[in-house]
Automatic annotation (TrEMBL):
One GO process term, biological-process aspect: homophilic cell adhesion via plasma membrane adhesion molecules
Name the record gives this protein: Cadherin domain-containing protein
Taxonomic superkingdom: Eukaryota
Species name: Panagrolaimus superbus
Molecular functions (GO terms): calcium ion binding
The keyword Calcium is assigned to this record: yes
SMART domains reported for this sequence: CA
GO CC field: plasma membrane
UniProt-annotated stretches for the region Disordered: 1-22
Length: 156
């Protein structure tokens, strides 16, 4: 949350073709939909349309949120049959960026390997395997960085 430093995650913007005045003054609001709780994690500034987080996120628990934002003007609608103000609704999807907040973990509690006493050096004995819940891309990037550092060292 602090990471955004008060800056919105994204900004929604609606336009209204009516003349200046309450008939074209736009207010934004998140639609409180009972079929999802995604809207509970965000707020929208009713004047600027800036969308802000209301909570911390865990990409490994949920990696995106979808909710609706509506834009309303500020005067009773003159459209035939309409009640209330004129409005439009847009879907907003927020993707949660990954951070490296999970350590690797072994998938087995214990490994047992056997090797003959006269085995050649470098004989395969057993393969151990760990997993990491963070996004694979991040780990690959780290490996690339490590490799490029190594090749620089080799050049010297
Ligand atoms: Ca209007
Ligand atoms: Ca993560």
């Amino acid at each position: 949350m602090e990471k955004f430093g008060g800056k919105p995650i994204t900004i929604v913007k609606a336009e209204d073709s009516d003349a200046p005045g309450p008939q074209s003054e736009i207010r934004y609001a998140i639609v409180q939909d009972s079929s999802t709780n995604a809207w509970k994690y965000f707020r929208v500034d009713e004047i600027t349309g800036g969308i802000y987080p209301l909570d911390k996120f865990d990409r490994e628990a949920q990696d995106s949120f979808i909710f609706d934002v509506e834009a309303m003007d500020s005067m009773q609608s003159s459209l035939p049959g309409a009640t209330g103000t004129n409005k439009d609704i847009v879907k907003v999807q927020i993707f949660i960026g990954d951070i490296n907040d999970n350590p690797p973990y072994f998938t087995e509690k214990r490994y047992e390997g056997r090797v003959k006493e006269n085995a050649e050096i470098y004989t395969d004995i057993i393969t151990v395997k760990a997993q990491d819940l963070d996004r694979r891309k991040l780990n690959l990037n780290l490996i690339k960085i490590a490799k490029s550092k190594l090749s620089k060292l080799n050049l010297k």
